[in-house]
Every structure is written in structure tokens, then in C-alpha cells.
Amino acid sequence: MTSFRFEIIHSSTKSRARVGRIHTPHGVIDTPNFVAVGTNGSIKALDNAMVDSIGLQLMFCNTYHLLLQPGADVIREAGGLHRFINRKMPIITDSGGFQVFSLAYGSVADELKSRGTKKADGHVLKISEEGVCFRSYRDGAKVLLTPESSILAQKAFGADIIIPFDELPPYHIGQGRLKSSLERTHRWEKRSLDQHLKQPNGQAIYAVIHGGIDPELRRQSCEFLTALPFDGFAIGGSVGKNKAEMVEMLETTMPRLPRDRPNHLLGIGDIDSLNAGLPLGIDTFDSSYPTRAARHGLLFTSKGNIKADRNEWARHFRPIEDGCTCWTCQRFSLAYLQHLFKARELTAYALATIHNLHFMVDLMRRVRQSIMQDDL
Amino acid sequence: MTSFRFEIIHSSTKSRARVGRIHTPHGVIDTPNFVAVGTNGSIKALDNAMVDSIGLQLMFCNTYHLLLQPGADVIREAGGLHRFINRKMPIITDSGGFQVFSLAYGSVADELKSRGTKKADGHVLKISEEGVCFRSYRDGAKVLLTPESSILAQKAFGADIIIPFDELPPYHIGQGRLKSSLERTHRWEKRSLDQHLKQPNGQAIYAVIHGGIDPELRRQSCEFLTALPFDGFAIGGSVGKNKAEMVEMLETTMPRLPRDRPNHLLGIGDIDSLNAGLPLGIDTFDSSYPTRAARHGLLFTSKGNIKADRNEWARHFRPIEDGCTCWTCQRFSLAYLQHLFKARELTAYALATIHNLHFMVDLMRRVRQSIMQDDL
Question: Residues A210, A141: contact at Cβ < 8 Å?
């Protein structure tokens, strides 16, 4: 089994951007790269043989969902997540913290849309120093998620990269509460790391840098977590209510991460954010946006996004984009796709998802080329 | 372009069953065979490259739906239905009659479930000797469907086998009305044939035998339609409220069809009906049941159907059926499929559909073998 290793191939002379290779037990992840989200062990509408064939090098699965369905025991007995879902290439899992706290606090978007600064506590029963107790949305069973239990679940799953348990504080939070949340997150991440190191299993563990949009807290988080033997660093927590705040936060955080270890931006994947994040040295980033957009008929092209169901495509008997080498564009016209979306055929979701995923994989290949040529 | 030709390879010595080959412009259909339904030019959840690779030799598309979306002009401009949907193998289209009259009268099932003996007229505006005028459920436009316009649409689509326009009378209908409906259907089918013969285009046209469950009317329908130069014969109309009625009807009808031309049983595809119909000499039959069942998590196996989402499969880390050579069984376990159904992942619908479709294709291959060995 290849052990985890990060290799920098080229560092840009013009920015912090770099091209690298993350070696994992299930193969290489070329960086910078896009990470698609397959919450339940499935990129929605695609099977994992197709996903592998598109060349998606890293897939993000959610521990919270997999814990509740099918459960860690089933996946362990299957021989791990790769075998259970039949994925040959690398997988990253999160800790479940993000989802369980989203239930408790709502997402930043929920807050900003004034759906209330705090959601009803949903199914979260108790948050304590030990961890979070919540009710399963599947069967109502009480589940206790702690740094230790999250890591043990992620050991059962066997993803190539795992993530320590953290608290996701709400965007609107006082300075005092943000600071104490950060301190608890740091204690939880340390406990996660300790649990991981008892049985590393060839897995890598990335710390999650927190601190919201407070530069001083981000600095403290970098200082605390980079002093620990994490294999890489994810940037999490609230990354701001708009791109300007996110960029400011990244400008504080990125220079404080060790250059010799890979980093990951959690949950951000729109093209604008990419363009902002890549020169700051982001190695990988995950987002459900390209695949969710596909299911809503928003197709990515080099000339911008297009809406598949518009009448102007009814007679476009050519691919979504000429020259595109994806399964969809090699076989089907945009006119047929328009028809499938208009007729609400399930096949539309698969064909559009294949295209957008291929687009992202190909875009990142070109980004790496640009960095290699100091052109980014 | 291969012209349409039917070849009998072997006739059973024990029943009317026979093994044959229908040669069409898009290749051979081995008979007896199952015909999957791809209403809008798509077997739900699959793309047509996958459908071809499963070896489904004949696909049924619905003129009614394709007329309303994307419309005959779009498909003509695309170069025909095969090119529009990228299907390499044969296609059969119906006339639109079945759907438009289902709107007006409701289906047999609707009637039998006492949802009323007659539905509200839906969007049907007028039924006359000329044809049926109805409103498009897409955009509210008035559409006139006549024998001539149905055939012209089917010419634009360019399916290998087309079907004349007919009236689908309700199951509960008086003898007098059934007889006058049959006479009109015969006049419409003759008009359809005349329209077809103006421009045969290498397409074959199958008459539709009507007469409901009245043996005398079925006989009359066979007599009238087999006297005309149709390339094959479909059995349509109401085929009864249960299997016994259907078998009785088939026993009247099948011996009255010319042995040298292929026949097709419309809209019937459950295994029991197959077992009843095949010894009577049915060559092809279409049904949406295997694919719809798949989307509801009902998986076909040689030991009977199983429900994919049952907890007993949660740890079944083997294929749906050992030895099955379908894409799904070669790659994924029933446990993973169970998980995908429980998690309501779109991927479940595709993987289950692939399996059931492969099952039907394989079942019919074995049926042909049995007939060849006089074992059916």
C-alpha cells in the first residue's frame, strides 16, 4: 500500500499557486484539483465506474450520512467504503461535524437569507465537551458523535484522507463565543488526531483551520494546528458571507500553512472562488455545485454556463460544446439533452452531470498546465 | 439499407411458438423478444449507448409524447429518431392513438379500480371520423391526430416499424359501440396503410388487431386486416381484465394471423403473460413493467422478484444474482443497491434498470434456445 505523500512539482513564480501530486493508497491526486461530492457514496445520478472513467481523482463522502445509512458496521464488513461503493480512486471523508452543526445552527446561507439567525435545534439533543448527541433522521435513534467516534467511523470507512471532528459555529456569533468555539474545536481536533494515531491505517488526516472571518482567530488556528503532526490542512468554518470576505480570510490563512503539506478548501467550488483561491495556493476544493447545477440543467462550457432547457437549443444538433471529449458530448446532442430536460427524463440528470464533472476535471488539468507555465 | 424481412428459423413441434429473425434497416431482432419502452426516446434513467450495450434489440417510442415534445419537425431535422436519440438498433413507434384515447377513456386499470367507467375527457376536444383533436399537455396548443398525420409523424421519426392509427375503446363498452369502434379503426388503419404506401421509406407497418374480448369481433378484425398488405400484426385494444381473458383472446386471435409475418403483443410484459403468450406464437411484446419495476426497487432474478430496499440485503455483499453478467452485477453488490434505494439516490434507478433490462434480454435468449430445442 502506497503511503500518503505530497510532492510539489512546480511552484509558480508569480503567486502562491503550485502544482503537486498527492500520493494515496488508492492512487494519485494531481493538484490543484476539484473534488466532487458523493454524499451517500454516489455522485448523484452516476455510478462509480462512470465516475472513475471521467477521471475524478478525489471524491468527497459525508460521514454523517454514511453513519446513519448504511452505518459504519455495514461498510466495515463490506471491506471499506471503496469496496462497498466500488470506487478505485481516492476518497476523502469529513467528520460529520459540519452536518450535525448545520442541523443545529443552519447554514451561513440560511442565516443570510434571514431564515432566522438560529434554526430550531433540529434533531440535536445536546452539545457538550464530549461531543454532540443527536437523533438520526432515519430511525430516530440517539447517536453520539465525538472526536473519537467520528475517527473510528472514518477508520471503518477507510477513506484515503479523513478529517477531525470540529464545531461549525454560526456566522453570526459574538467574538467571545467564536473564541471559545475555536478553542473547543482545537481540543476536539487534537483528540481526533490522537485517536487517528492509535491506528493510522495508511490514512492521512487533515486538520480543519477555523476562526471564521476573524483574522486573529484564523492566525491562532493556524498556529495551533500546524504545530500538530497533521498530514494536511483543510480550511473550514465560516468563510464569509461573500467572495471578498473569503479572499480576505484566505489571504490571512494561506501563508500560515506549511508549504510542504497539502491543503483543502472545504465546500467552495464556483469558478469565481476558484480563480481567487488558486493563486493563493489552494490544492484541492470540494463542491456539490457542478453536479447540482447539472441536475438543474445548468451546463458548463468554456464560454460560460448555459441552461439546457432553453428553446434556443431545440435544434442544436451538436454537442454541448464542440470538441468536448466527455461521454455525453461524444454521443448526444444538446438538442437531445434539451428534449430530455423538457420531458423531465431521469437520463438528463446523468448526461448533464457527466458533462459538468468532465468539465471540472478538464478545467483543473488546464489550470495545472497554466501554473506549470507560470501563466496563472 | 436492409429492407424489412421476417425469417422463421424454427417452429416448435409442440406449440405455435417459433424462433425467427426480423431484419430491419437498423439490424436484426431475434424473436421471440422483449421490447422495452422508451416513451420520450429514453429508457428512463439510462442513456441509449448503455441500452445498446445491454443488447436490447427493439425499443418502443411513443408518437403521442414525441409529437408534443420535441415535435416531429425537430426529429426530422435531426435526421430521424435514431440519430436524435443516438440509438443504433431498431425502433418501433406507435400511432399516438393509445395515449390520446387513454386520456379520453382512462385505462382498463383505471376502470377496474372503479375510478369511474369514464374519465373526464382530459384534453380531448373532439373525436370524429377524421381523427382526434386534443390539447397539448405541454403548451395547450390544439393538435389534430388523424391516420394521415400519425403516419406522417412516424415517417419523420423514421422508426423501423410503425403502427397505424386506431381507436382504443374502453373496456366497459356495449357490443354495438365496440363494433362501430372496430369498423372505424379498420377504416383508420386502411387510411394509415395508404398513407404509408405513398412513401414506404424502408419502414414496416404492423396492423393492430382489435375487437376487445369479443371472439367474433377479433375474428372479423383478423379477417379484415390480414387481407391488407401489412408487414406484421400487433394485437391491441383491450386484452381483458385478467390473464384468463387475455389467453382466451389470444387463442382466438393467434391462429388467424399469417404465420409468415411477425406479430407483436402490445403493452404486455409480465412473466406470467409471457409464459401464456409464447406457446401461442407471440414474436415480440412491449412493456414498461421491467423498467418501472426497477425504479421501484423490484429486481428480477431467476428465483423470483426481490425488493431491493429490504433490510435483509444490507449485508449482501454479492451481486443481485450470482453469475449475472449485467453491468450492475459485474460491479456493484445488492448491499450497495439496497443502500442507494434507502438513501433515495438517483443512481439506484439506473443500476436497477440495467439489471432488469439485461434480465429480460437474457430471459428471451433462453426462451429462444428452449424453442429451438422444442423445450418450451
Answer: no
